[in-house]
Amino acid sequence: MGGEEVSERRACRTLGQPRSTQRYGAKRPDMDRLLLGEMRRLAEAYPRYGSERVHQLLVGTGWPVNFKRVHGLWRQEHLQVPQRQPKRRRLPGSSAGGIVRHRAQRPNHVWSYDFLSDRTEDGRQLKLLAVIDEYTRECLAIEVGRTFTSRDVKLTLQYLFALRGAPEHVRSDNGPEFISAEIQGWLNRASVDTLYIQKGSPWENGYVESFNGKLRDELLNRELFLSLPEARYVLDEWREEYNHRRPQPTPPK
């Protein structure tokens, strides 16, 4: 039995539905396409950022979107950052130099520094000295060389002290460049206390360890440096990005 064709006007009157709803075109698909395009661009530019940090970037550039929407699209499009390592259980720091007993309370209160290593394309070693302010989380310096001595460490600190003033404390592990008589004597004359973490307890120097992890994950694992000058240039650019153009964590309380 053939059905009688019913006009739009009659059908809407019968159903009690406004005719305007038949002509409404949903705007969300278009909005989502634009949003996904921007999310993919950010994911490509910052491949180790997750949905939370991408949401911060979106809001910072004027996108009126909540985190729930960004997170849903992020999962739907399989943009999740792969987890490279399982979580590890760590005991809280308890030594005299650990962050639990000496937590930064203000800028220039506690600086921390540590070394990282990498290689140039020819296989030669690169050694990186990273210095951060634990309260602001700002990276104060990333010095790069083939090797580092205690004198090189002292020269880096001398420059930073002249530029920013001396901190009250500096925190480090017990590496030979940090515990040498030359460094300890010079810091003592500058009225800067040294906070040495317990041996084999890197979590007691947690802020610089966290920074080093971001640096390795976001840059060192993705870049092949052709030379020492290129490494210095790229690392300085990344430091500027880290300090001034990326979402920053809330200072510790």
Fraction of residues in helix: 40-55%
Strand order of the largest sheet: 3-2-1-4-5
**Biggest sheet features:** 5 strands, mixed
The average pLDDT score comes to 81
Percentage of β-strand residues: 5-15%
Given as residue ranges, the uncertain stretches (5+ residues, pLDDT < 50) are 87-94
Number of strands: 5
Backbone shape: elongated
What distance separates the N and C termini? 76 Å
Q: What is the helix/strand order?
A: HHHHEEEHEHHEHH
User: How many H/I helices?
Assistant: 9
Rg to the nearest angstrom?
27 Å
Provide the structure class. alpha/beta
Task: Explain what the structure shows.
This protein is of the alpha/beta class. Helices cover 42% and strands 13% of the residues. Strand 1 and strand 2 (125-133) form a beta hairpin. The protein is elongated. Residues 87-94 have low confidence and may be disordered.
Please render the helix and strand layout as text:
Layout: H1 8-15, H2 28-45, H3 51-60, H4 67-76, E1 110-119, E2 125-133, E3 139-145, H5 150-164, E4 169-172, H6 176-179, H7 181-189, E5 193-196, H8 206-220, H9 228-244
Parallel strand pairs: 1-4, 4-5
Antiparallel strand pairs: 1-2, 2-3
Helix pairs in contact: 3-4
Provide tags for this entry.
9 helices; 253 residues; elongated; alpha/beta; 5 strands; 5-stranded mixed beta sheet; 13% strand
Summarize the structure.
With 253 residues, the chain is an alpha/beta fold. The chain is built from 9 helices and 5 strands, in the order ααααβββαβααβαα.
